[in-house]
Known about the structure:
Blueprint: H1 23-56, H2 61-65, H3 69-89, H4 91-96, H5 102-110, H6 116-141, H7 143-146, H8 162-184, H9 193-212, H10 218-228, H11 236-255
Helix pairs in contact: 1-3, 1-6, 3-9, 5-6, 5-11, 6-10, 8-9, 8-11
Amino acid sequence: MEESISIPRESGATADPSAAWSWAQAFQVHWPEYFMEATELALFMISACVFTTLLEFPGSPVRGLLPNPVLRRLLNGIAMGLTLLLLVHSRWGKQSGAHMNPTVTLMFFRLGKVGGWDALFYSVFQFLGGISGVLFAYGILGSALAHPPVNFIVTEPGRWGTGMAFGAEIAITFLMALTVLVTSNHKALSRFTPYFAATLLAFYIFLEAPYSGMSLNPARTFGSSIVAQNFRSIWIYFAAPALGMLLAGELFLLFGTKRGVFCAKFHHDNKMRCIFRCRYHEL
């Protein structure tokens, strides 16, 4: 495993050699992780498009068998929670850290775990992955994905309006980020972090989706919006998740242990290389 040495964030010092890299050096060494991030989110989006089409497209036989919309939303949540678990536990997820979300990367950058160029490239490739996944799904599903009940799985505010959607997105992102930080930096719980995250995701889709469409992720929202050419209230899904993640990070630093954050991976109990400012061995 590729290791780097890190000094705690409070000291303001670092022994991480990648801190002085140019963008070209960072890309030359860490490009596999960038492409992994893009592919992981693309696969997540394909799964979301397929399951939502099966459950919501009026011409789907599954939709005909399940007339109850609450039950369909529950099944969709379970499907996407399992999708997240599979991606995090995949070989690529174990190596890249399975962020699949620019605001997750932003939070770990703020916490001193991700280098500047890595944070930038992770974000760019996550957006590319979100777009690619929806485009690929569109090529497979065709007009069924564009049908109004599915609508390219665009995230939009519910009938309670933009204010409710904004507040709901901050709340669910904050809780997700704080859960990941607490569990991933706890010796006994760290290996279960993916299960906590997947469970929350499933509950969010089931319970919160009617309020905001349940994004958590600017790259996920942008991928759907750009293919659908529907940018209604898209600012919510950039601003609110970033705010929720950063608030959770600051709260963790304020009330967490003095040892801080050990690494930026969702699943670190493996032998795959780590490109972050990693102290997982201390945990």
